[in-house]
Amino acid sequence: CHVFARVKTLEMRENTKIEVERIKEIWKTCLDRTKANGKDAEGPFLFGKFSIADCMYFPVVTRFRTYNVPMPAQLESYCQAMENQPAVKAWLKEALKAPELPIYDEYILSLGGDPNGGFDKSKF
Fold first, then answer.
1. Residues of the chain with pLDDT under 50
2. Which residues of 47-86 are buried (b: 16+ CB within 10 A; e: fewer)?
3. Cα-based distances in Å from 72 to 17, 28, 75, 101, 114
4. Each residue of 62-75: pLDDT tens digit?
5. DSSP letter at 71?
6. 73: alpha, beta or left, given left = phi > 0 and alpha = psi -120 to 50?
7. Which of 5, 15, 79, 103 is the most buried (most CB within 10 A)?
8. Separation between Cα atoms, residue 57 and residue 62, nearest integer Å
9. pTM of the model as a whole
């Protein structure tokens, strides 16, 4: 999958909506507990400091971006913190070198999306 693809609107199946909301609730619970325990001073991530849990969820952040999944402010801040990690910025720079995948691009186009709609030169 091309990390820069964007789809403006996507009608999700009911079971997909349930799973998306479940992930949002997990993130909110972690962030709320982190704040309640005073660990939010350590960082804006699920458990304060950047951890393996954040690494595990980064691909989910990219899919939520691809399919324009709305985020409440607290979760949007978390997603932005993930995207601003130096390792993520370096990874995105490398992703620019990846070959295009015509079958994936065709799929994104069939959804009314843009295979390169999330590319922002100002980030590089």
1. none
2. bbebeeebeebbebbbebbbbebebeeebeebbebbeeee
3. 15, 10, 6, 32, 24
4. 999 999 999 999 99
5. -
6. alpha
7. 5
8. 9
9. 0.89
